[in-house]
Specification:
Helix 11 links the parallel strand 7 and strand 8. The chain is of the alpha/beta class and about 425 residues long. The protein has 2 domains: about 210 residues, Aspartate/ornithine carbamoyltransferase (Rossmann fold); about 190 residues, Aspartate/ornithine carbamoyltransferase (Rossmann fold, 3-Layer(aba) Sandwich). It binds phosphoric acid mono(formamide)ester. Phosphoric acid mono(formamide)ester binds next to helix 6.
């Protein structure tokens, strides 16, 4: 497409987005009401929509989906759960894990899917200059589908699409208000990544085996780390890399605010673009969260190496796709090895502390070299697989199929589990 045509369609997009500016600028707590219906999530746009009870419920249900999917009959039953639905996967920004895990979660639950991954092959901004607006595309999807899962490089676009859906419903445009699920928007939000991150952290800190019994290692760990507790609370979480431009860190930090006594360490180049954003820092200070900001994985806190004091390390890559020419100069003059994990650095970590990364990792920069993959603390491939279970559980929540799932689980495992009736 020529630059002129693309500039024109971008102008139209910005004009359409500007109409929602007053809604976007509202405080988060006011927005949340617009994304919920009847006490459950309708549109999933912001991490701040998740409460602790909801996180617990989704993680419990993700476990149930995981267990049911473990045998052919369980899988067959899961495939009937939402088989009346049809989803649009609208991913106009590149994705491997989020796209494929949503596609796999839909398939697991019987949801049929279609996809648009490149606007050049739709009428949106295709060759031939049809110049359909992105908002018209969304409105069209709502005519044919029951759900839109969307990724866009445009910040706030998913949020605006949720407002569009609500508007169509309220003005009785004869257009359905279908759920919008934000699968990554600009540098601002990636709530479903944060959900699978929390699910992974929860599973790691259960210190349980697959039969949900405590691993003997936990008792040994307690001898070495007497303050260690099971669960997500009471932990120190460290985040390393491009913190200012990485949406996964922003979303995960927001979810961790649901837990008690969490401390956070932020490790990034000391530059306003890459360190923790002022808005997020202020929010953490407001919530009395204990935070430290340092500029190297080798930094010390209270006279001891920080890596020996943390319970979980969340690595991220430098988001090269957001670079401007001045950023290239900054990286050329900065020693980026301070933000790369090495086997020596891993050795100084606590023996149980999981290493997470939302992936993709940068195979050129090498913030996590492959030599670390076989370390039992390397959780990033498990984390990516957990996206399947967590996203399936989220879809079950959005479409109000939780009770059916619990009944299915209870019946399926009736002979095996001593199931607690009280949870039904
Ligand atoms: N973590 C993540 O969002 O990966 P993808 O970009 O591959 O979806």
């Amino acid at each position: 497409m020529s630059d002129t045509k693309s500039a024109h369609s971008e102008d139209i997009f910005q004009r359409d987005m500007a109409e929602y500016e007053p809604l976007i600028r509202r405080p988060v707590r006011k927005k949340i009401a617009d994304f919920n219906r009847d006490g459950r999530l309708k549109h999933v746009i912001l991490s701040a929509q998740f409460t602790r009870p909801l996180l617990d419920e989704i993680c419990d249900h993700a476990d149930m989906v995981r267990e049911l999917a473990g045998d052919t009959d369980g899988k067959r039953k899961l495939g009937t759960l939402l088989s009346h639905l049809h989803a649009m996967l609208y991913f106009t920004q590149p994705s491997t894990r989020t796209f494929l895990s949503f596609a796999a979660a839909c398939r697991l639950l019987g949801i049929a899917t279609e996809q648009v991954r490149d606007s050049a092959v739709s009428s949106e901004t295709s060759e031939g200059s049809k110049r359909e607006s992105r908002f018209d595309s969304i409105r069209m999807f709502s005519s044919y589908f029951d759900l839109i899962v969307m990724r866009s490089k445009a910040p706030n676009f998913a949020e605006c699409c949720a407002y569009l859906m609500n508007e169509l419903e309220s003005r009785e445009f004869n257009t359905r208000n279908i759920p919008i699920l934000n699968a990554g928007s600009g540098a601002d939000q990636h709530p479903t990544q944060a959900l699978l991150d929390v699910y992974t952290i929860r599973r790691t800190f259960q210190f349980q085996d697959t039969k949900r019994t405590a691993r003997p290692q936990f008792m040994q760990l307690r001898e070495r780390y007497p303050e260690l507790k099971q669960g997500i609370d009471d932990k120190t979480y460290a985040f390393c890399g491009d913190l200012g431009r990485g949406r996964t860190v922003r979303s995960l930090v927001e979810l961790l605010l649901n837990y008690d006594h969490v401390r956070m360490v932020f490790i990034s180049p000391d530059n306003e673009k890459f360190r923790l954003g002022d808005d997020l820092r202020n929010r953490l200070i407001e919530r009395n969260i204990e935070i430290e900001e340092v500029d190297s994985l080798d930094a010390q806190i209270n006279g001891k190496p920080l890596l020996s004091q943390i319970d979980c390390l969340y690595m991220t890559r430098i988001q090269q796709e957001h670079n401007h020419p001045e950023d290239e100069q900054f990286f050329a003059s900065t020693d980026m090895s301070h933000y790369h994990l090495t086997p020596e650095r891993v050795k100084s970590m606590r023996t149980y502390a999981p290493i997470l990364h939302p992936f993709p990792r940068d195979s050129v920069a090498g913030e996590i070299p492959t030599s670390i993959d076989s370390d039992p603390r390397a959780m990033y491939f498990h984390q990516a697989r957990n996206g399947l279970w967590a996203r399936a559980a989220l879809l079950i929540h959005v479409f109000n199929a939780d009770r059916t799932l619990m009944q299915m689980y209870k019946e399926h495992f009736a002979d095996v589990h001593d199931f607690n009736e009280a949870v039904l």
